[in-house]
């Protein structure tokens, strides 16, 4: 019997549950609604800036920021700095994500590994980026290694924690069912445990995407010669608030795009899951 039907013992008949009353939006309507508040904020910002309620040197109008973006794009400066930052974030994410997943899988499956690894990882995880930055500079200098290391460091922990948690939260009855069906240990891992842990792992990926950019912003403010962080820092020296606001907006847009890609990945990989199979 499906979850949308109910069986009555007295009459032996099946009834379809009626849809809940109320106004519903389609997927396109929900997407449009999600952009309503940002658009209203931009319009309000533009109006306040044009009529002098906001000082231009403190917060320039969106139209001026858009013009600055156009000029920097035509000159090639913006695209170059954006590409440099994206490359750093991608490399750091791949390294940190791989390490976090490997350690999380090991700790998730082994109590001995948890006793050996987890406490040290949690201690390092508690250290803020700014506290470890001077030591990283001493170790790696102010080149690309320092920036990629900080990104990898920030990315590793959310994936590590969520991978461990996801493996530990797999229903033991499913594992027992797999053993009854004669699945080998490898088949239990690949067909039951890891798929069951996948929602938590992908949640860690979403958190780590945000952390990657946070770490990169910190890293690019020290000794960088290119990148969005360098662009904002250089603009600060000349009081170019339009460029600074532009970099902030770019960071926000990158975050939205990254989170949308992570959601798309969730829908593709978790089609079998009742909470992810439907369009979100």
TrEMBL record:
Family: Belongs to the binding-protein-dependent transport system permease family.
Pfam family, any one: BPD_transp_1
Broad class of the protein's primary localization: membrane
Entry keywords, A to Z: Cell membrane, Membrane, Transmembrane, Transmembrane helix, Transport
Alphabetical list of PROSITE patterns matching this protein: ABC_TM1
Top-level taxonomy: Bacteria, Pseudomonadati, Pseudomonadota, Alphaproteobacteria, Hyphomicrobiales
CDD domains attached to this UniProt entry: TM_PBP2
Name used for this protein in its record: Sulfonate transport system permease protein
Parts of the chain that traverse the membrane: 30-53, 86-109, 121-142, 148-167, 213-231, 243-265
Location in the cell: Cell membrane
UniProt membrane topology term: Multi-pass membrane protein
Gene3D superfamilies: MetI-like
Span of domain ABC transmembrane type-1: 78-262
